[in-house]
Amino acid sequence: MSKRFTAGAVAAAASLALTVTGLGVPAAAAPSSTRTFTVLAESGVSNDAAIAAITAAGGKVVSRTDDVGLFQVTSDRADFASRATAAGALLGAAEEKAIGSKPKLDRVEQEHLLAAVASKGKAAKGKAKKMDPLDDKLWGLDMIRADKARTIEPGDRRVTVGVLDTGVDASQPDLAPNFNWALSRNFAPDLVDVDGPCEVASCLDPVGTDDGGHGTHVAGTIGAAANGFGLSGVAPKVSLVELKGGQDSGYFFLNPVVNALVYAGRSGLDVVNMSFYVDPWLYNCTANPADSPEAQAEQRTIIEAMKRALTFAHRKGVTLVGALGNNHEDLGNPRTDVSSPDYGSDPYPRPIDNASCWDLPTEGPHVIGVSAVGPSGKKADFSNYGTEQISVAAPGGWFRDGFGTDTYRADANMILSTYPKKVLQEEGSVDEAGNIVAGFENSVFKQCTAKGECGYYTYLQGTSMASPHAAGVAALIVSRYGKQQGRNGFGMSPDLVEQHLYRTAAEHACPEPRLQTYTNEGRDAEFDAYCAGSLNFNGFYGYGIVDAYAAVKTPLKPNARP
Predict the structure, then answer these.
(1) What is the edge-to-edge ordering of all strands in the sheet holding 392-395?
(2) How far is residue 45's CA from residue 50's CA, in Å, rounded to a whole number?
(3) What are the Cα distances from residue 274, in Å, to 209, 360, 370, 436?
(4) Cis peptide leading into 513, omega within 30 of 0?
(5) Which of 13, 96, 113, 472 is the most exposed place for a label (fewest CB within 10 A)?
(6) C-alpha pair distances (Å), 18 with each of 21, 67, 185
């Protein structure tokens, strides 16, 4: 998922969506006595009534998302949150709080950089005839038969795929041909407390930039161009739309995420990929006894706001694809949450009741949840799973795959994709001159055009890398079977896309024994995972591993069961 598979309470949102007015307030711009909140109206309450209640509680509305009754509010009242929660017209308020530290390397996604032993470059390579120079390293494209799929359907330029993430580096030569400047937006101004100094005076990074790197990696897997350069994506001719809803540091807060989803629906996007969870709560619970009344109200606000936003986007024709998470747990039987809140205050143990707690957005309505497998097809040790939430599996990489062979603990077991040079330089793998630093030759690659334009590529692993494989297949389905809608529209019902994706996935039975351990790979008993279900549907693979070739070759059968 995102750098830390994160996202959360509230943050400033850019008002670039059609239904949002006013500009979000970066944390550094507000007086120290003023705090920022995301406030949600009760169901059925008019926006005017909600604004009146906010004003009466001592708040000032600085932006509004009318389609879901969401408001960004500032207030200098210490008791604003409790007053807003007590108001009959308002469901609750979630506060933005500074913590003053930027997240480090993600311990799952960049495990190879944190490994105690030197990693290797040898691993499974693509077997099919490559189109681009680095395609022979994309075992994931082979696994889902995307190389064969593009001979039938490489993607339609009219199909738009939103990358709801940390941004997209549109200067990358593999992404530039497919980047849609007209539709791309930034909804997440920089917060200096966690993102570092703002790069521009407004703190709103220009569209086409990515100071986190995660979104650029996701975008490349979905739709890097098949242009004889670098590498190619699952759907190399679709249009990529940046929906920056995540901070540079990897946090994803409620206000930007909701605004991005509403914008996606109103703009007619076809697919949106979501490789994150909404911070600061790994699980949002309606009334967890371990939480304070204020924290409970905040989480109820997040739950309802996300449900409204996801439902709105779905009804507007958006197919929603989400990463299942990297916490190596059965989402139907979750462990005690010891990582929340991850923003604003110290985390504390929270026993999780599956009936009243949600991991969002992946457990939200209409979201296709994706687990991660390695080159061997085995569920990656870090990947979440479970029959209640999983939909399909996809290549997400697994550094520790191949135990007992010379591919064990190899960089190439992970997913190679596009990445910003600036971020690689900050991480120390590329020097100031743009050259790969010694020791990183197996994990970072550089390709340059005849004109001297260079693109960079690196390996990551996670359900964040699996989800875009599934999103790319969804985009191919829309490209293949979508229809003209109105004068300028083109698309396909998300329900039909989802049904066809499931029906054409390659069924994969549970392993034997069903209780899988990862002790050979150096994991303790906490990583043990039991695979429940049948060949048709189970907790590790859902309906199966997505299959791009079957998806574009198999005739569409509306109303057919998966």
Answers:
(1) 185-186, 239-244, 160-165, 271-274, 319-323, 367-373, 392-395
(2) 7
(3) 18, 10, 10, 30
(4) yes
(5) 113
(6) 8, 10, 11
Sign of the C-alpha dihedral, residues 240, 237, 139, 123?
Answer: negative
What's the token pair of residue 68? 């879901």
Give phi and psi for 451, each to the nearest 5.
-85, 0
Cα 398 from Cα 523, distance rounded (Å):
13
Distances (CA, A) of 409 to 73, 138, 412, 466, 492: 48, 17, 9, 19, 41
Phi and psi torsions of 470, nearest 5°: -70, -40
Question: Containing H/E element for 395?
Answer: strand 392-395
Of 258, 282, 276, 283, nearest to 358 by C-alpha is: 283
Q: What is the chain's pLDDT, residue by residue, as a tens digit (562 residues)?
A: 654 433 333 332 322 223 333 334 444 444 458 999 999 999 999 999 999 999 999 999 999 999 999 999 999 999 999 999 999 999 999 987 765 544 545 778 788 777 655 556 655 555 545 689 999 999 999 999 999 999 999 999 999 999 999 999 999 999 999 999 999 999 999 998 889 899 999 999 999 999 999 999 999 999 999 999 999 999 999 999 999 999 999 999 999 999 999 999 999 999 999 999 999 999 999 999 999 999 999 999 999 999 999 999 999 999 999 999 999 999 999 999 999 999 888 999 999 999 999 999 999 999 999 999 999 999 999 999 999 999 999 999 999 999 999 999 999 999 999 999 999 999 999 999 999 999 999 999 999 998 899 999 999 999 999 999 999 999 999 999 999 886 668 899 999 999 999 999 999 999 999 999 999 999 999 999 999 999 999 999 999 999 999 999 999 988 777 7
Q: What token pair was written down for 88? A: 């009959």
